[in-house]
Structure formats: structure tokens, C-alpha cells
Amino acid sequence: MRLFTSVLTPLFCLVASAAAASDYHEQLVLKPLPQNSVLASFDFKSNTSVAQFEAHNFRYFPRSLAQILQHAGTRELHLRFSLGRWDAETWGARPWHGTKEGSTGVELWAWLEAGSDEEADQKWLTLTNALSGLFCASLNFIDSTRTIRPVMSFRPEGDHPNTTMTNMHLLHGVLPREVVCTENLTPFLKLLPCKGKAGISSLLDGHKLFDASWQSMAIDVRPVCPAGGECVLEIEQTIDMVLDIERSKRPRDNPIPRPPPGHELKCNTSKPYNSHDTCFPTDSLSAQEWTISQVFGKSMKGTCPLTDPAVPPVCIQAPHSRDVFTSAGVTELKVKENERCYLAPAEDDFELVLPHMPHEGENAKSDADEYVKPETPLLYAERSFTGHGQQRGGVQTIFTNPSPDTEVEFVYLESLPWFMRIYLHTLQARISHRTGSDKGETLAPEGDVIQEIYYRPFLDRERGTQLEVRMRIPPASTVFMTYDFEKSILRYTEYPPDANRGFDVAGAVITITTLTPNGKTSSLRTTGLLLNLPTPDFSMPYNVIIFTSTAIALAFGGLYNILVRRFVGQDEGPEVSLVRLKGKIRAAVSRLQSKTKKPGPPGMAAEVAGGKEKEAAKIE
Amino acid sequence: MPRLLSGALLARRDPRLLKIPPYLSLLLIIVGVAWLFMLPLDDYSRRTYISENALLPGQVHTYFGGSDQNVFRAYKHEITALENSTNAEANDKLESIFKGLGLKVGRQNYTYHSSGNTYAGENIYAILHAPRGDATEAIVLVAAWRNVKDEFNRNGLALALALTRYFKRWSLWSKDIIVVVPPESRAGTQAWADAYHDAHDSAKVASLPVKSGALQGAVAIDYPQEGRFEGVHVVYDGINGQLPNLDLINTFVNIASGQMGMGSAIQEMWKHTDRYNDRLKTMLRGMVNQGLGHAAGPHSSFIPYHVDAITVQPIGNGWQDEMALGRTIEGTFRSLNNLLEHLHQSFFFYLLMHKERFVSIGTYLPSAMLVAANFTIMAIHLWIQSGQRSKVATAGETDGKDGKDGADRQEQEAPSTDAVERDLYLPLGLVAGSQFLGFIPLFVFNHAPAGILTVLFYAFTAFSLLIPHVISPLLISNFKPTAQQYKLLSSFSLLLLGMFLSALATLNFSLAFLVGLLAVPLSFAYPVRNVLLKYAYALLLTLLSPGTVVSIAAAASGVGLDVVLREAAFGWTVWGMYTPLVVWCVWWPAWLVGVVVVLGRVQEDRNKEKSS
User: Fold this and answer.
1) Residue B67: which of A85, A210, A265 has the nearest Cβ?
2) Are A470 and A480 in contact (CB under 8 A)?
3) A182 touches chain B (CB under 8 A)
4) Which of A243, A268, A388, A426 should we substitute to test contact with B (largest number of B Cβ atoms within 10 Å)?
5) Which string of b and e fits B322-350 if b means at least 16 CB within 10 Å?
6) Span of the secretion signal (chain A) (predicted)?
């Protein structure tokens, strides 16, 4: 492999001189978090010049994805697979300022180049169907009811020439119900130049990734035009996950959290009742020892030979007072305060060991030695349903601006299913100040908190509700935004097989337009919701059908007979051939009988039979 | 078919038909009661079964135990130390324990006022986030500081803490687990469940600071007793007689008996032979609990919100320890965790007569419906009779002479005699008036201070026993009501009673049945002429008046009238229990009208006037 690369590298350099040497690089940033968690951010970035891309010369850019993008006229693509929830209270601000995460499930938004809305819809359909096949996700279920065209929330991240900007259509779709799992990871890894065989991508294992407390896989494709250089198409694949150290350290062959033997429990010995059989546990307080191979289940197998050697593959964001031991041959670089990076040997296994940090005894360490204090996010948001019952409901979103002095401005975007019929007139914001003269909760004056609303109402079975609200929250205050909705009754066949579970509603997207300290926009997502719609008893329709059919058959049949049929005497109606035949046979039989029975009066039997027949009413 | 129709038309005119309803009514009552007593038989009840396949009770290994017991003991020491501290201090300590486990903690204040008493406290709850979940669903574990009998729930709370710590280690939870610790078991959970579903009055109950998703089930631990126990008692009655899904009870019973090998009991039947007598006793106890509609445990407040909930209480002296109960609860939580959909497969309306035997609504409902139907039939009967007043006398006479001839003549005369006009104003006014009067005791007993409740109640009972004796003579002297008016009076009153009870039977079967049974003599109330008989009937009705029945029942059960009245007022204001409404606004007005009718005297002169 190495020989192969060394032979090919000059060739590549000739072909793509503008793209410089950094056509592909990868980096893993590990960040210990409070409560014995660790955030692992994998970042894989590769690019190819736009000219090369258009000439079908893809190099590090994955061909399978590139062809789809070309076919569907996609200028910029963002695809997210997420699971779990980010605990902002404990973990602080989100990695990448929330720009690399999506709502639970699958989220996709893209800028398509198209002359008209219809053409954009057509291309969007092509794109979702093709991506669905590529990523083994049900992206093809992003139909018109789940697609919206956000107006205020998203801005193109790449550099687009003004000529194409006018023809670009932004479409956004989300599948909250989609469970992200190993089948999505495998195609994700296949897009990487080293395919999970070498480098940091070899640490990615489905068992650990999907056991994480929170994880997000992201793919971003965008054109980047450096000043004075040739435009390149950049693909950035990131995976962020928060691993619970204790859980991740469990061996795979024994994943059951059995109670540890009594003597292994870490007890608070200061308690008066502490004894061999009574133990007040303290184990969740101090930092545990962990190594890369323990938390990821395997060690890193060398570096990816295609990566830019100048970019260190592994970095750790922890105070310098935190002890970190490395395997042999690893070079440590102190990049900036609270961050260390490690250059790994190309072929040997790479290992990092973070030892136990005792909080007591000699060399006692504090939390500040263990992890960097998490950065306070610009905004906390939490959304939940209010109300109960089958007819109406409400949604309450609580926004908290933790900053004591700066106000925060953001756009709140909700993409709601059509069967959740919202009443826009009930949308209101109450504001509660933590400090100041107007402390307490009040109804916010019109236009004070809510600046602007963009609302595109639902159409039954055609499209969902799109609600975008631009809001501004003053410092140190909390805003409660509420609105009511009505639950509609679906058609019998529109219910999914597990109708009693409820219907998933995607998380709201919050794009914060107030810039972060390092001058970037940030975003966050609320958690999804589970909407309970009125659900019929699915065995009931069958009972009803059976019952009504029987009733109709009995009542209608009898009534119809009485109304429509005419009752006449047998001798009045025309003779039916079968009856005539019967009569003939009977006559023949009676004749035969009269012949055999000489003593009896002739024709008597026939007369009796005929009389009986006359009595019976014949139905015409 | 035409012949059948004409036959029916002929039969309709038969005067004998008019004599059937009272007997039919009586028959319905007898069949209704007999029906209930048939239910415990093997042929009418069914064995319980797990209907929701996803639950898979007892299919998982439970690992709670070992060194977790050391932790449990430590928590028990901590809890015991807090027995005499204030609510806020105790919650401070709990908050530090919960936060140490890495859970999100919320606290909620509530203040209820009922019968002049204030019920205030602070709930504390902790949310264990499902490790890979998305806050869409949650299961609740409740452990109150004090149980419904005001005993200190020492082991229950320690067990809840130890279980929470153990649950935190698992990564398989698909739903959040919420541990709710109210200070007591009656108002605390109600405040919490109300606030969780935003159905609370924010003046009395604070909103919850943190929330999770839709609640899928709740299990409350009530474990004040010390030492080893023999089995568990499952309490399942909800407010207003609503019940949790039968699958939840079955799951717990199945895990307790099948996996853990411990006995389980329901309705305080500690020894159950599973024979007719015990089954009947269990069923009747269940019906009384359901009929009263009060909260039987901390779980009861969840059920009105369609959150299936049970309370489990260890009972007896055996060899099971707290870890066994912990493992049973672990098993139940694992089963609930398996649920893909909200519990909906099994029954919500049932009567349990043994932990593994039940009757479903289709089988038991007819008994209450038959009793309720008797009132409606009598009401219709009286309505028809009231329109044929003169006929009764003439028909009786002619029938005596010659049956066939009389019937024929009746047929010819029927159109002319049927056209008697009904004098509706007096009966309608009286029935409406008595219905409105019913709101007075409802208001008074729900708002009077606790100290004077008993006195008020006795005063009201005496008043309500006397008032018919006042109304009746007044009625007779002022309005001179005719037999027709008495019939209409009865008819309207019974019509309302039948309607209310049959509607109630679908909501709270037991209450409808019990009230229906106690109101049975009202069906046959009429202005008796014989003075002795009249007062005997009036005495029977006096004994079955709502006031006397409540007093006698309170005395017989040994609870005390003051407790019953306080509980009723508390239930009305805090739980939204509608039993007082049924007693005062459905039963009492019907009773009042019934006694007035019995004490009534048909004005002879008017009768003569009409017949001449």
C-alpha cells in the first residue's frame, strides 16, 4: 500500500496542483466530560477540485456519492444520522457548535440546482431515493409531507457563484422514526479512503458507537473557493459520540452490569454505619481510568497512509494536569492550552492511557484537573407536550438564555406532520426574568421576543406544517413558547402497524444567529416528541363489518322480498317447467299406482297430491 | 312476517301487557343480582393471560442483588436518619443522592385545601435518561415517604434508591425512568401527575421544572414493614374505579409467582383458596373499592391519565428479602421497557376474583345494566299508565265480568280513553327541584370545615328524613295531586335514575350497581292507601336513604363517619372523585321523590270528578 501511494503521489500532485497536499486528512479529538463520559469527535475531510469532479475524476471523493450528487444536480448536501440526546446541562456546548448534528433519526437538507420548484422536487426525489440505497436508510420515505423549504433557518455553507445561487433550491426532510444502526455505519465507513481498516476510522465499531449516550454521524458536501485559488468540492464526514466510560469498558463477552463483589465497591468510609455489608457508594464521583482500546473496544491500527501527515491523528482536550500515557513511538505536541495532540507511528498500534484520578489521599486531584470545564452554551432549549386526551394538545418549548449580559437571537424551525393541526393564533411567548426589576413571569409584549414568523400551513395528506420563528431573548431570562394543536383522526389504513405507540414528531431546529465567541453561527436541536393520536380499536371494524352485514342481510333481505315480490296463487301464475315436470311424474306414478292397486278408486292419489300443491303459494 | 307483525300489533293492545312491567322489573333485579353471584363460577370467569406479547414477563434474568444489598443497607441508614426531618431537609438529602448518581432532579411544591385543612408538601423526582433514548417515553417508579396509612416507607424508599443506582448501570433502557418521591401517598402523586400532564391549577400546584416523554406505566413501592416477607399485595384500584390495564397486573403477578416464587395477593385477601367463597369475597371487596372510587395507593392518581399503575406491598412473614422485591420490580421494568406500544392489548374493564381469575366487562356489565334497566322499564310503565288513568278502573271491572268481551270492548274504546291529557308541570317541577336540591349537600359537604362535618351530616340526614314528611302534606293541601301526577312524578324520577345509572355502569360498574341496588325499592313506590303499609314502606326507604346508608356503612366498617366525610371532600377537591356527585345528585333526589310519592295521598274528589 505504502509503495503504491509513494508511486502515485507525484502523479496526483501533477493532476491536482491547486488542491495542495491536504487532499485528505483525519483527526480524532477526545474530550473528557463530567460524570465519567468522554466525547470522541472523528473528523474526515477530503476534497477534489470542481473541475476534476466535473470530469468524473473523483480521487478521494467517494465515487458512489459523487455520481448521485451529479445526477441529482446537488450543489450542497448535508446528511445527519443521530441517536440519543445531548445533555447540555452536564456536557455544556455542543461539539462543532451544533452544526454537525441532526434531530434524532435521519435529517437531510440540500441545495439543488433547478429551474423551477417542480424540477427541484423531482431532483429531490431522485436524491433521496439514491441516498436511501447508498446509506441503507429509509430516506425514500421523505415524501412531500415531510419535505419543507426553510426560509430563514439554513444558509449555504459553501461558496457558490452568484449565477448558480439564483437557481438553488433548499429542501429539507427529516425522518424522526428512523433508528440509526450498524447498517448505516458500514456505508458511511465505505466512503472513507481508508474504509475503517487503518487510521482513526479503525476505532469505529458499531457495538460501541451505538451504545454511546449520544452520537451523530454527519456528511457535508460543499464547494469551497479559497481566495485566489481554484474551487474545490469538499466532503467532510464527522462522527461525534459521547461514551459512558464505565459502560464502554465492559468487555463485549460480558456486557451485563452484574453487581461487583462487595469488596470491590468503592465506599464512603466516613459514614458511621460503614461496614463490610453496608456501603454508601462513591464510585460515580472520581474519574475512572480508561484507555483508547478499552472505550472503543479495539486499538488504533497505524495511521491511514493517505492522510496528510502534518495533521496529528489524535488530539485530547484536557487540562495539562491530566496524566496521559502513550504507547511507544508516539510524539506529543502541546497545541494550545488544554489541548494535546499525538503523532502516531504509521504502522504500530497506537494507545492512550488516562489513569485513575484519586480525589482523596496524596496527590488528590480535583475536577478541574480531570476535564476542561464545559463551555456554557448560548441557549438551552427543551420541548415537551402539554395537555392530555385524544382531541387537543399543546407544545411548550422552554428557551433559556444563560448569559448574564448578552441577548441571543435565533430562528426556531419546526417541521410538523399534517395530522398535528396547529392553531397559529395560540402561539404566544411568556418571558421570565431571573434578575432585574421585572423579575418573575410575564406575557411577553407583541414583537418583543417573537420578531418574525414564517408559516406555511399544512395540507391534509400533502404537506406538513412549516413554522419558522425568529426570536430574541434578553440576557438571563427564560422564554416559554406555547401553541395548541388539534389531533386529527387518520383513515383506517393510514395508521402504522404499531399505532398505539404514537407518532414521532421531529425535533425542532434552532439556528442561533448570534455569533459564538469565535465568530461562527451555531445550532441545536430539541428532542423529538411522541404524539398520541386517537387510535381505533383495530379489531372493532371487523366486528362492525360482520355485525352490520348480518343486520343488513336480514333486514334488507326480508324487507326487499316483501316490497318487491308479488304474491299470487299457484293457479294464477304461469306454470314453471320444473313444477310441470313434477306434476307429470306424479301423475305417472299415480297412474302406475292405480294400475297396481286395483281395489282403490282410480286417480285418488293424484287428486290428493294436486290439492296439496294448490295450497302452497307459488312465488313468481 | 306480516302475520307476525299483525300479531305484535294485536298483542300491544292487550291490557294484560300493561301488568307485566312490574314483574319484569322485579325479574330484572333478581336476574341482575343472581348474575353477579354467578360470576365467580368457573364457567363464567376466565383465567388471566398475558395479552401483549412484547411484555415477555419473567423471560429475563434479573441481576439486582449481591453487593447492591450493601448499598441498599446504606441507603436505608440514610433514609432512617431522615424520618423526623422536615420535608425540605429530607428532599435536600435525596437530591444530593440523586445528583451523585448522575440524574436530573426536579422539585415541585403543592398546596391543597380541603375541609379547612391544608395539605402541602414538596415532591422530588429524578429522571434517569434512557442511555440511547430520546425523551419520548418514560416509566415511573414511585416511593412515597409515607404510605396511605401514614407509615414511614423506609424500605420502599431505600429500595427505590438502590434500584435507581442499579438501573443506571444498564444501557438497555428504551424509556426514561422517573423516580418520584412524594412526601405522602394521597396528594403528592396527584399533584405530580396533574402537573406532568399540565392539568394542574398553577395556584395550588407548581409546574414541573424538567419533564420527559409520555408515561407508559408506573409502579409504586409501599414497603414500611421490617424483616422478611412472604408475598406481595398488588393494589390496583384507581380513582373513580378506573383500573390499570390487566396486562400490568398479570405481568407483575407472573414475575412474582413464576420467576421469584413469591405469593401475591389482591384486595387484602391474604389467604385465598380459589374457591367460590373466596372468589366472591375478593370480587365484592374489589367492587366496594371501585364503587367508593378513592385512591387506594400512590399509583391511583396516574390511572385517570391513562398511565397504567400499580402499588406493590410486601406482606406476611416469610423468607423473601428486599432484594427479591427489587428483582421483581426489575423484572416488571424490563417487561415495560420491552413495550413497543402503549399498554392497550388487554382489558381495562374487569373484575378480579383471584390473582389469576377475572371476568371482563362483557360478562359482568349486564348485571348492573339489568338493575338500571328496571328503573327505566318502570318509568315507561308509569308513563303509559298515567295516560290511561280511567282505563284501569273500567278495565278492571269489565275484566272481572267477561275477559274476552272486555278486551274487545277495550279495543274499541281505547282511542277515546287513551287521550287523557297528562298534567306535567307539577311532576316536572318537583323532579327538577329535587335534582337541584341535590347540589346543596354536595356543596356543603365539600366546603364545610372538617370539624363540623359530622354534625352537619347528621343534621342534613335528619333534615332529609323529615323533609318528605313536610313536602308531602304541603303538596296534598296546596296542589291536590292526582294519581296521574304521582305516577308521572315517579316516572320522571325513575327515568333519570335509570339513565344516569346505565351511563354510569359503563364508567364505574360497581358504583352503578351498588347505588342501583340500594335504590331498588324506589321502583315500586306508589301512594299507598293503607296507613300501616305506607309507614312501613316509608321506614324501609328511610333505612335506605343515602344519609343512613353512609352512616351505617361508616359505623359497620369501623372507619368513622368523620373520616369518610373528610375523605369524600378530599377526593372531590384533590382527586376529582365523583362519588359524592353520584350520591347527592343522582341517588338522593330519586330517593326524595320516592318518599314523597310513598307518603302521598291521591285526591279522591278529583278522581270522582273524572269518573263521573
Assistant:
1) A265
2) no
3) no
4) A388
5) bbbbbbbbbbbbbbbbbbebbbbbbbbbb
6) 1-20
Answer yes or no: do B74 and A502 touch at CB < 8 A.
no
- Which of the residues A244, A245, A280 would you substitute to probe the B interface, choosing the one with the greatest number of B C-beta atoms within 10 Å? A280
Mean pLDDT of A465-475: 92
Q: Which residues of A262-290 are buried (b: 16+ CB within 10 A; e: fewer)?
A: beebebeeeeeeeeeebbbbbbbebbeeb
Report how far residue B84's alpha carbon sits from residue B99's, in angstroms, rounded to the nearest whole number. 23
- Domains of chain B with bracketed CATH: 53-355 (3.40.630.10), 422-611 (no CATH)
| Cell numbers that stand for A322 in this block | 491530566
Query: What span, in angstroms and rounded, lies between the C-alpha atoms of A150 and A172?
Result: 7
Q: B70 and A265: CB-CB below 8 Å? A: yes
Top CATH class, A380-534: mainly beta
Retrieve residue A28's grid coordinates: 480524532
Q: What is the pLDDT of residues A102-125, one digit of tens each?
A: 899 999 999 999 989 999 999 999
Interface of A with B in 92-111 (CB under 8 A): 104
Handedness of CA A91, A94, A96, A101 (dihedral sign): positive
Q: Is B73 in Cβ contact with A213 (below 8 Å)?
A: no
CB contact under 8 A, B71 and A394: no
Cβ-in-10-Å burial (0-12, 13-18, 19+) of B89 comes to exposed
- Residue ranges, chain B, pLDDT below 70: 1-13, 389-419, 604-612
- The partner residue sitting opposite B305, judged by closest CB among A104, A384, A388, is A388
Lowest mean pLDDT among A295-299, A491-495, A613-617, B543-547: A613-617
What is the per-residue pLDDT for B2?
Answer: 60
Residues A233, A39 contacting (CB under 8 angstroms): no
Q: How many Å lie between the alpha carbon of A34 and the closest alpha carbon of chain B?
A: 10
Cell of A240: 461525534
Name all contacts of A535-538 with Cβ < 8 Å and 24+ positions apart. Answer: A535/A495, A535/A499, A535/A500, A535/B344, A536/A492, A536/A495, A538/A495, A538/A499
Sign of CA dihedral A61, A63, A66, A70: positive
Strand-strand pairing, B214-221 and B309-320:
parallel
pTM score of the predicted model: 0.86
Please judge whether B71 and A279 are an interchain contact, meaning their C-beta atoms are less than 8 angstroms apart.
yes
Average pLDDT over residues A593-616: 54
Task: Give me the residue from A261, A530, A535 closest to B214, CB to CB.
Answer: A530
The residues in A 32-71 lying below 8 A from B, measured between CB atoms, are 35
Q: What is the ipTM of this complex?
A: 0.83
Classify residue B121 by burial, with Cβ atoms within 10 Å: 0-12, 13-18, 19+.
buried
Q: Which residue in the block uniquely carries the three cell numbers 416528541? A: A529
CA distance A417 to chain B (A): 16
- For residues B52 and B336, the answer to whether their CB atoms sit within 8 Å is no
Q: Which residues pair with A411 in a beta bridge?
A: A470, A511
**Share above pLDDT 90 across residues of chain A, in percent, rounded to a whole number:** 32
- Cα B318 to Cα B128, B226, B267, B270, B321: the distances in Å are 33, 12, 20, 13, 9
Which residue blocks in B170-275 are alpha helix, DSSP H?
Answer: 188-196, 246-254
Tally helices (H) and strands (E) across chain B. Answer: 23, 11
Alpha-carbon gap, residue B46 to B39, rounded angstroms: 10
Closest CA to B188 of B145, B158, B155, B157: B145
What residue segments make up the domains of chain A, in order of their start? 21-252+265-370, 380-534, 566-619
Q: How far apart are CA B312 and CA B310, in angstroms?
A: 7
The counts of H helices and E strands in chain A are 14, 30
Spell out which residues of chain A touch residue B71, defining contact as CB-CB under 8 Å.
Answer: 265, 279-281
Task: Please count the other Cβ atoms lying within 10 Å of the Cβ belonging to residue A9.
Answer: 12
